[in-house]
Amino acid sequence: MKSMILAAGRGERMRPLTDHTPKPLLPVGGKPLIVWHLEHLAKSGLREVVINHAHLGAQIEAALGDGARWGLSIRYSPEPEGALETAGGIANALPLLGNDEPFLVVNGDTYFDWDVGRAANVLTPDNLAHLVLVPNPLQHPQGDFSLTGSLVGGDINETTSCGTQVFTFSGIGIYRPQLFMDIQRGQPAKLAPLLRAAMAKKSVSGELHSGRWVDVGTPLRLAELDRELGSL
User: Fold this and answer.
1) Contact between 105 and 3 (Cβ < 8 Å)
2) How far apart are CA 206 and CA 149, in angstroms?
């Protein structure tokens, strides 16, 4: 299974740290944030990695190279300044990810201990996507999607009224290429509308991850994670 790390965001909330350094290269626990992902993927045997980039993307390519030092093969999917949003970035990278087999996608600005080695086995033949959800963090208490058994739903207003729990999307997803086939390459597109359309057809499965997960979206959360990982 191929994997994609989303690394094209500008990192506005991380400024001024990201004015001269792309967010995935910010140091945490003694190494760039994105390297934690690369090591996790390599340890799990997921060797083929695609990384998209836009803001200061040349720094990412220079820092990571072809991935050989981690036993990986890294290929890059450059995007224009301003990037293409999540779904647009994935669609743009499909020639590298392939048009036939499912692939794993993770957000480059998160830290987690979900077992990526499970990714190849969680998507059933009748689903277009499998999402890893997490308990709602303080900065996002309303959540994103409901989870009923292994079925993910998109209408959180309706589900909360009937007592179904709503959780936050971790940014970890396994997708079939068909989910992105209607997006024109090079055009910006958001992921949530695609997922909600698939959810309406009951084609999105999911699971709740109760382990470690951090959205490294602000300098404060970056500093807190740096202290935590530095003490390990």
Assistant:
1) yes
2) 8
| pLDDT tens digits, one per residue of 38-66 | 999 999 999 999 999 998 999 999 999 99
Distance, in Å, from the CA atom of 37 to the CA atom of 77, rounded to the nearest integer, reads: 17
Q: Looking at the domain 3-230, which fold is it?
A: Spore Coat Polysaccharide Biosynthesis Protein SpsA; Chain A (3.90.550)
Predicted TM-score (pTM) of the model is: 0.93
Give the contacts of 8 (CB within 8 A, at least 6 positions apart): 52, 53, 54, 55, 57, 79, 83, 84, 89
Number of H helices, E strands in the chain: 7, 13
Q: Are 42 and 70 in contact (CB under 8 A)?
A: yes
- pLDDT per position as a tens digit, 123-143: 999 999 999 999 999 888 999
State the virtual CA torsion across 64, 73, 106, 197 in degrees, nearest 10: 130
Q: Within 13 Å of residue 103, how many CA atoms lie on the same side as its CB?
A: 26
Residue 178 structure tokens: 């068909």
What distance in Å separates the CA atoms of residue 15 and residue 116, rounded to the nearest whole number? 30
